[in-house]
Design a protein that fits this description.
Two copies of one chain form a homodimer. The first copy, chain A, has 309 residues and is α/β, with parallel strands linked by helices. Chain A has a single domain, classed as Ribokinase (UDP-N-acetylmuramoyl-L-alanine:D-glutamate ligase), CATH 3.40.1190.20. Helix content of chain A is 38%, strand content 24%. Chain A is built from twelve helices and 13 strands. In chain A, strands 5-4-1-8-9-10-11-12-13 form a nine-stranded mixed beta sheet, with helices on both faces. In chain A, a hairpin with a 2-residue loop joins strand 12 and strand 13. The radius of gyration of chain A is 18 Å and the shape is globular. Chains A and B meet through strand 13, helix 10 and helix 12 of A and strand 13, helix 10 and helix 12 of B.
């Protein structure tokens, strides 16, 4: 479907496609659409043509497929494994979303997932290695043509379970995204301005440390960039905020066709405001329906509320 | 000493002048110069002619006087009470400065302090009500000519001990500064973007909520402004950071001769970088010796590291 012009700015998103059940102090979601690739691809799709690589099982039906198709997400890389159900995760958030506890994880068909890139995906100029095992993220890099701009996301689980594999991955990616707690865990430094340069020493050219409601810091060879978060007064569900952040970031880079420092700063602002939408409803709902106009409106507001004349 | 031009932009600073003994995970300061008016007035003096109102006792000698005079601080309002020693405070910081415990407080001559403004101070166009009892802050307002731009700082102690008096004070000041924990304590809301408007409802025209290493947010009738903190990689002593912040803020407003939204945003950036210097050494030392050039350099860096083009 893509034109040549579109393909040259396509974003490949790999990660989990899942069903989640999320309990918060305010609600119980029941079984809903989730997964790092789902959030990441929808967020990216607001900015650039997006391709999804992942796996789903028997319980992933036309309704879910249509939700992704509605965002023009290319699903040629979405494997349908009929041997079982889709990856399922259930978790509960504590008061004020200060903590998250996993209640249940059923890997299902994800247990045998091996990302396989359709031939036309291998030349994707932008690739988001969404939050999954670093070994699987590496398999995607193995299949990508040289020259792609690669962004890797992660989570504390992989710092615990697959640290050597994560450390092997980092020198192979352009941009590494993690949150302040993960940066602390990985470097031993709780001060983000100390941790950032330590992370660069691990290999990625660029690092973004997210600080939740306190914004994010970009560590780039040309300097630092610090951005407050877009103000959110009522968080409903933080699930997928990081995935949306990463998806919007790489989508905005792809749309600009550039990964320079100035473009990265703008992309970080788009990432922040897109994540702010995600957390305002349970699951993917708000991200899905927000629309580009609202993202742009928040972007303009965020630029205005951080400007010193 | 002041010219007419200078007087029209003078800053009045009222607060405590003290000796502190500060224990940190890294050092024990011994008996050193401290107090909210000391930090506030030195910070303000980098920007505008500054007048100090406070009280000291027998142990406050020529050495301390000279440290203030070196910053051209007008000391006509500094009372010398020969009936006892100067206010003394001793405290200890926990690991990573996450907590602070008071070890000893000796009010000494401060117990009988009643701020009395010399006649020429009453027309000060800018007044910082530094962190002392709200009752004493109110006494300063009673003596000030109408039309002064007034900034009030506070701390958790007064929220506990003198909440009614603080609530009486707030409608009388233009700008109220507090940190995120105090904002939570005073409004019951942990989200600063919820707490800010609640604080405005308490009476001040403008509110600044400080978030320590995470920056600060300005709530103004014309809109929001959010600013990350200037990066500090090695905190030595957070004592006086808030006082320096407030002093630099009001000094920068006085220097500009304006209190509009754009000027306030710039003043907040000056406040942030001045506080960043204070915390880099024990006590007043770094603030005292930093110099305006270093403040300006950090201001320029902070503007650059927060700009989205």
């Amino acid at each position: 479907m893509s034109t040549t012009a579109n393909t040259s700015r396509s974003v490949l998103v790999v990660g989990s496609v899942a069903f989640d059940r999320i309990k918060t102090p305010l609600a119980d979601s029941g079984k809903i659409l989730g997964g790092s690739a789902t959030y990441g691809a929808i967020a990216s799709s607001y900015f650039a043509p997006t391709r999804l690589v992942g796996v789903v099982g028997n319980d992933f039906g036309p309704a879910e497929i249509n939700r992704l198709r509605r965002h023009d997400i290319d699903l040629a890389g979405l494997q349908m494994d009929r041997s079982g159900d889709t990856f399922f995760w259930s978790g509960v958030y504590g008061e004020h979303f200060a903590s998250r506890t996993t209640l249940e994880t059923r890997l299902n068909v994800f247990a045998n997932f091996s990302p396989a890139l359709p031939e036309e995906y291998r030349t994707s100029p932008f690739a988001l290695l969404g939050n999954i095992q670093p070994q699987l993220q590496a398999q995607v890099l193995d299949q990508l043509a040289p020259g792609a701009f690669t962004v890797a996301d992660t989570m504390n689980l992989w710092l615990d379970l697959a640290r050597p594999q994560l450390l092997e991955l980092l020198p192979r990616v352009d941009l590494f995204i993690l949150n302040d707690e993960e940066a602390h865990q990985l470097t031993g430094h709780g001060n983000v301005y100390v941790a950032g340069p330590k992370l660069i020493q691990l290999g990625p050219k660029i690092v973004i440390i997210k600080k939740g409601a306190h914004g994010a810091v970009l560590f780039h060879p040309e300097g630092l960039f610090a951005l407050p978060a877009y103000p959110v007064t009522q968080v409903q569900d933080p699930t997928g905020a990081g995935d949306s952040f990463a998806g919007a970031l790489i989508g905005a880079l792809a749309a600009a066709g550039d990964t320079g420092f100035a473009t990265l700063r703008r992309a970080l602002a788009y990432a922040t405001v897109t994540a702010s939408l995600t957390v305002e409803a349970l699951g993917v709902d708000r991200l899905e329906t927000a629309g580009r106009a609202l993202i742009d409106q928040r972007f303009t507001e965020l630029v205005r509320m951080t400007r010193i004349d």
